[in-house]
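The freezer alarm interrupted the setup, so I double-checked each line after restarting. Inputs confirmed:
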Amino acid sequence: MAEVLIKNGVVYDPLNGVKGEKKDICIRDGKVVESVKNPKVIDAEGRVVMPGGVDIHSHIAGGKVNSGRLFRPEDGRKGVEAKTKVCRMQSGYSVPNTFATGYRYARMGYTFVMEAAMPPLAARHTHEELVDIPILDNAALPLLDNNWMTMEYVKSGDMDLLAAYMAWMIKATKGFGVKIVNPGGTEMWGWGKNCSLNDSVPTFDVTPAEIIKGLAEANEKFEMPHSIHVHTNMLGHPGNFEITKETYDLVKGIKPEKDRQVMHTTHTQFHSYGGTNWGDFESKADVIADYINQNDHATIDLGSIILGDTTTMTADGPMEYSLYQITGRKWTNHDVELETGSGITPFLYSGKSPVNTIQWAIGQELALLVKDPWKLALTTDHPNAGPFIGYPIIISMLMSKKRRDESAEDMHKVIYDRAEYCSIDREYDLYEIAIITRGMAAKALGLHEHGKGHLGVGADGDVAIYDMSPEERDAGKIQKAFLNTKYTIKGGQIVVKDGEVVATPDGKTYFVTPECDDTLTDEMMVKLKDKFDRYYTVTYNNYAVQDAYVPNPYEIKAPWRS
Amino acid sequence: MVEVTDVVCSLCGCVCDDITVEVEDNKVTKVKKGACSVGKSKLMGHNRIKSPAIRVNGELKDCSYDEAIKKAAEILAASRRPLLYGWSSTVCEADKVGVELAEEIGAVIDNTASVCHGPSVLAIQDVGLPSCTLGEVKNRADLIIYWGANPAEAHANHMKRYSYVSKGFWTEEGKKAKKLVIVDVRATKTSKMADVFLQLEQGKDYLVFSALRAILYGHADVVPDEVGGVSKKDLLETVEMMKAAKFGMTFFGMGVTHTGARHNNIVNAIQMTRAAHTHTKFSIMPMRGHYNVAGINQVCTWETGFPFAVDLTRGYAWYNPGELSATDLLIRQECDAALVIASDPGAHFPGESIKHLAKIPVIQIDPFPNPTTEFADVVFPVAVSGVEAEGNVYRMDNIPIRLRKLIDSDYPPDEEILKRILDEVRAIKEKEEK
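Predicted 3D structure, all chains:
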């Protein structure tokens, strides 16, 4: 029996209400236990101890990510590191290779990452890369909103059949939940067009609003661990904050099947824009934060900007086209039959640009203005607003008003008059940081019931020990500590020591099995098989992801609601 | 007799997956439907390498797999500049072991893209690739352009399953309601079907792309009366068709990647697509040749960061096509050993490259004998992926599909041979370190 005892640490475990207490953590056979007999002892010597980090939204694996790597050799060359006795070769900055992705997350103390967008038809690709990412436990959200089947059921109002389709697709893709990206808009991009929340999608005659509501209802027909996960319409457009608010309102009346939100909206920074064009562009983070403060059915993640060069990628094909038209840089697009699409283009976030400066402000303003940290998670929508290795920068900003004021001095002066950034005094403490980097994400994903995001007895032995004392106030030192842990422990095994990766166990892939009634499934299948016979270019029998693609599975059953 | 449906073809980049075959006494006895004649021939099987062999005094002598593994590992472990080449006609699981082997021995790993759509990759790295899956073409496209490609003979099911002849959601009438434009230097079986056939002069693709771009951007006035052998009238007519289409699609082949301006041709083809996109929906896709050439590019990219011509001598990936592509290394006589898998440089490389390849120790892994076998020093016969072994492959539109195993075989799969070589190389290195 492998045992570990972490002693003399100052523990922040928000899901168990542990707020900076000196506390021992005992691990046996990969799980947290009450006590141990003959453990390997790690003396944390008063350092900050947290559960392994949980990232609710990041693009780390699959077709888009790899197209990003392929068409950006200039990014690949940025992060090269030679193989070692323990580690495989590394490359890339905004689009790191699979190995670097695992190592760098682990070095920041993260042990679980959600791949945020899996095109169902290319799900095998996503899983091939997830298997190749060392250390991290993972899962992926299949895109289910621009699918013809979804739109047809939303139109006909057959919510039970929509649920049956949703269930089959999540099972077929070995996915985790329902991802929605620019509903309707990506289908219209098949014809080079886009749409907004209440526009009708030609041929299918449904609105994005109806799609979102329909999928939210379908999701709550099962005890799904996660709510619908939404990238709202009109991402990145000035004035889109109204649409964002309206999207939240859509699902307000729907009752969640579990104790969680009904809707998680992602990379909210990109959806909190005021103004009518890039000239009068301004922050509406305050309005969005007010909404979140006053309502309990929606959660958000930040999509906070990291200044510098990055690679943007999303299933929102028309949005990437707009971005490419602004920059004139290279642009890749990949529309996926009957289901979804994607676009990729490089982007430079510059503090000299008024627009980028306001974007920088908005991401952090959201975190500072939403009062309850349980309603938000720290993300950069990696790599869209910046690579995940920028998280420690955001943490240091949120923890230090001084740091924010210093950063503002280096940025475009609009930060003083078109954002509230400099007038907010709030500083996060470590407990709140632990909430937005692990506790909240685990809870919003329903993974706290499966041992993630906390250190209670029975939890996974995933622990991050940061090389800082709880009293540390120097923002630079905080940033440094969160970039490379003193120790990262994954399932009771030390995987990072003194900022170096020392072991690379395989991660597990979490997937959900929504349990749908056979009669409903059979009825739905008639329609689905017709789609395969007439429109798909892959046969029904070759479509579903085979077990071989998920060699380390963790299944979560989601029964039909009682 | 057992009938097997949904069989996936492991021949070309079309990766047809709706084939039905009959299996009897552990043999594919009949291909009932779905496959083209070349695919059918592969599924039915043909002459194979019989036994592992090692070349002794100029002659290949049969040996055991153990002996061949030992010999191959010795060659690779002793090599100062090994080249691992091929990877396109095998599955991703094998490709992954290949990258690991290359990393272990500090090899250059390159794949057949470097003599195929390598120029397309360079173009994509310059300007990106506005593309889509083949089903988007099937369901939406009403204008199909094949440029420097002859699918009627090289990708025989392509038009039927995915493009001009197929029927889909908005294309129920099939080819009746579509336009076909063929651009080529000569009349082909495909060009006979075309609504418009632009026969251009050899090597003038770049000029014709430029002319079409200019017209698409509203600058017809700068285009001369004839461009690369094509009349301005025909060019104007083609642009009108492009603008009138609801969804236009360009497929391009080797005729564009390896003539005249090479990768700049493709940059220009993509720029033409962008120009057309200002009028209507337009996409573009390379006609990938081998069934998993897209897959080795994928695996190599997610593991090393780069799609082909990757040097791992330094322990990290160094990418520089033109310097590190297989033919260049061989012409410079730089490598001192090579492993060739699932490809045939002996038939396809320039003479200068083959000359050097014939001089150095060559390890070959392949189900079938080919010209490379004639000078290979260690030969491993393996199972045929898609018939005797399963695994993941990427279709030309980068859609992953799992090859099925139809019959049992005494031949091991590629992946197993590679793993055993890797283990043996590690054992040798461990011994040397001690």
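Quick read of the result. Chain B has 16 helices and 22 strands.
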